[in-house]
Amino acid sequence: RTWNPLCPLSRLSRLVESVEGALFLVSVLVNCSGYFGPSYYQHTLINCKMSNLLAQLSLLTKSDKFRAYLEAKRWKPWDVRLGVHYYELIMEQLMAIVPISVLLIGAMLIFFGRGVSNPPEMLFGLSAAIFGLTLFVDSLRVCIMPMSDQLGVELPKVLTLPWILAVAFVLGVLVTYAEPAIASLTPLAKLVDPEKAPYLYSALLENRESTVLMVGVGVGFAAMLGTMRFVKGWPMLPIIVATLIPAVLAAMYMWWGDPNLRPLLGLAWDCGAVTTGPVTVPVLIALGIGVMKTVNEQKAEGGKAATKSDNALEGFGIVTLASLLPVLMVQLFGIYLTFAYSIDDIMDMVPPPTTVVSIFDTSPVKELVNALRAVLPLFFVLILLVKFVLKSDLPAFTFYLKEEPAAPKAGAGAAPAPRSDGRNFEGLDLTVFDEGAGEGGKPKGASSDIESEAATEAGGAAAARPPAEEVHKPEWSPQTTMILGLAEAISGMTLFNLGLGFGFSSIGDQVGQLLPAAFLATADEPGSPYYSYGIGVFIALGVLFLLGFLATRAEPALNVLGAIVEDLSKGSFSKNMLVYAVCAGVSMGMAVGVTKILFGAPLIWFILIKYSIALALSYYSTEDFICIAWDSAGVTTGPVTVPFVLATGVGCSKAVLAPEGFGILTCASVWPICSVLSMDLIRRFVLKKPPGAPPSDRVTAT
Fold first, then answer.
1. Hey, CA dihedral for 131, 135, 136, 140, is it positive or negative?
2. What pairs with residue 414 in β-bridges?
3. Which of 134, 56, 31, 124 is nearest to 91 (CA)?
4. Would you say 583 and 591 are in contact if contact means Cβ atoms under 8 Å apart?
5. Contact at 8 Å (CB) between 550 and 587?
6. For position 351, what pLDDT does the model report?
7. What is the number of helices (H) and of strands (E) in the chain?
8. Nearest to 216, CA basis, from 278, 267, 171
9. pLDDT at residue number 50
10. CA dihedral angle for residue 175, residue 180, residue 185, residue 190, rounded to 10 degrees
11. Which of 123, 125, 285, 469 is the most buried (most CB within 10 A)?
């Protein structure tokens, strides 16, 4: 390409044409992610000013100074807690969205000399996504979780187990519609070519609602099975095997039995990643664990033995089920489409091009309508269940939080410090109700309230806090607070939907179309390929590798999981071991997954080989780490990662003229399972602790 030789960007582009330059850029990006720490590069081209800048930016994530500022302004204690809560939520979304955006935009600038097509629109989209997720996640705490917890505790008192399972199924379907990530499928539907992938086009556009319903049905079955597992104490590995076998058989039929279904295979397995977000997991966990606790109490009162288990992680497993069963349901739906419609029927249903646009297809009306359809059904069904099934009063909704007592610094053998905002493992409650584990039937080191206390990062701030205070009684009535919480949820979902269209999808699509031009001649890039084949492939795979690393490292749920595992293993499996094992797994998965799009690698072999490895490693692992490893794959695909990855994959498919761009999330979801289980096996080998070691040598509750 012809660039101004005096342009610094041009000089940098010549630098990265060498392997040393590419490796240097990778090291810079990894340094910015906090992997090695600023001091590692003090003697490289990143000078002390860069290190100081990173150190100053890292202070933005600390809420202590913001708390002190509010207290200096003489804010009331309850207002300070609420202000800090919103500050932490905003910082959490910033730390998830900004690094990924900087990586993708930086890759466009450095490697291709391109900026985003519409910077103001992109900035608006990312800002809308940040504030939208903040509002939506907070609305879960205010309205959704109190009713879910109440249902989990009181449903067994008024309904038998079969009816409880029916309620779990209905809630599983409804929470799927409320997941923010599920909306990321909408802007991708119009990017599918019906001539190349007719059944994928039909599933995403003509039958989109049916496809989402099938995903919801899968989550509903996962809710039923997960609740039964909580109550009965079933082991996890047989359930995983029983779920995987039909899913793999359906995948084999779609690949070899009917080649027309091959483009739909990636979508089906990617759907498992969009279901384990901030709505599905906490609601189903609260319901399942609440039912388990109440049933055990009823058994104890009746003189029967309660469900007991030495496993300290009974709450785990629902993420795995909610990831696998939707895959099976979407595959079965795809097979059904081949019997219901021929390819000619689908082509006849393709609407002709038109310039007339309905008001419901324009922003922000479109996003508002989708938000209403996602939030209202779940909200009103929860109210109906509380009022007419439980025949109970609604919980006391409030925006305010209780002050938590001071907690010791987390570490090996110490419980992680609770969050001040009352939120937990991205909504996932890690509370374990193990009869006899602690006083009052509660586990030692675990919280006693499902929704309002949970573990957070090890090494968190342990500054002294004032004694615990009662929550401030607001002037609003619970009914008014409920309405405001509903408005907060709808507003948050609307903003997030705007962010999907104007931010996530736009950036991902642009980067996806540029990456293949690094080593291939593409129709949209006259100057391509920009680099030699080897260097270009390295750049394309390296960007996806770093995207996986940054997206995973920014997930707060992963830090929480790492702290929990470190505590339960008494320090033998440290937090960093788990965090970086998962990060490495997701990164490798994304780099490998994109080869399916760029080079046409068969997805079916990725599925067969990787899940075979995961099952083999699970056979030699313990129940504890089976639950941890298989659930760790689900917590890494949040509402931020999924849209970026899906849009990037579809963009790559457009550049190389592939039929579709799905499958990256499929690979990114299974590699962490293998990496965590491998790390556990290596740890046990080093410590010489076989699977049959005494319970005191295994990962159990302290």
1. positive
2. 411
3. 134
4. no
5. no
6. 79
7. 26, 0
8. 171
9. 40
10. 130
11. 285
What is the three-class DSSP state of 167? helix
Measuring CA to CA, which residue among 561, 633, 285, 579 is closest to residue 416? 561
DSSP-assigned states of every residue in 581-604? HHHHHHHHHHHHHHHHHHS---HH
- Looking at residue 303, its pLDDT comes to 67
pLDDT at 328: 95
* Structure tokens, 175: 């929470």
Residue at token pair 């779920």: 243
Whether omega before 529 lies within 30 degrees of 0, making that bond cis, reads yes
Per the DSSP assignment, residues forming a β-bridge with 696 are none
Token pair for 520: 């291939």
CA distance 667 to 551: 15
Count of all residues that appear for the chain in the document: 702
Determine the Cα–Cα distance for residues 144 and 174; give it in Å rounded to an integer.
12
**Tokens 């080649």, residue?**
259
**79/85 Cα distance (integer angstroms):** 10
Question: Which neighbouring-strand residues pair with 455?
Answer: 418
592-620 pLDDT, tens digit per residue, is 999 999 999 999 999 999 999 999 999 99
- 148, 268, 571 from 508: Cα distances, Å: 35, 20, 39
Q: What is the DSSP letter of 260?
A: G
Rg (CA), the chain: 25
Angle, CA 653 vertex, CA 651 and CA 655 arms, to 5°: 75
Burial of residue 624, with CB atoms counted within 10 A of its CB: 0-12 exposed, 13-18 middle, 19 or more buried: buried
**Res 533: pLDDT:** 93
Q: Is the peptide bond before 364 cis (omega within 30 degrees of 0)?
A: yes
DSSP letters for 345-373: HHHHHSPPP-S---GGGSTTHHHHHHHHH
pLDDT for 27 equals 45
Alpha helices by DSSP H, listed for 515-638, are 533-553, 556-568, 575-598, 603-619, 623-635
8 A C-beta contact, residue 375 and residue 490: yes
Q: Classify residue 660 by its DSSP letter.
A: -
- Residues of the chain falling short of pLDDT 50: 1-59, 309-312, 406-469, 694-702
Spatial contact of 268 and 331, defined as CB atoms under 8 Å apart: yes
8 A C-beta contact, residue 191 and residue 650:
yes
Residue 651 CB contacts under 8 Å (≥ 6 apart), including other chains: 508, 509, 510, 511, 512, 513, 514, 515, 661
Using the structure block, give the residue that is written with the tokens 């910077």: 119
Cα–Cα separations (whole angstroms), residue 131 to 242, 281, 364, 620? 41, 21, 16, 44
Angle at 584 between CA 582 and CA 587, to 5 degrees: 105
Structure confidence at residue 457 (pLDDT)? 34
Query: What is the C-alpha separation between 203 and 417, in angstroms, rounded?
Result: 45
Beta bridge partners of 425: 428
pTM above 0.90, yes or no: no
- Residue whose tokens read 């849009």: 647
CA–CA gap between residue 468 and residue 445 (Å, rounded): 18
Residue 129: its pLDDT value, please? 92
Q: Are 643 and 184 in contact (CB under 8 A)?
A: yes
Question: At residue 475, what are phi and psi to the nearest 5 degrees?
Answer: -70, -25
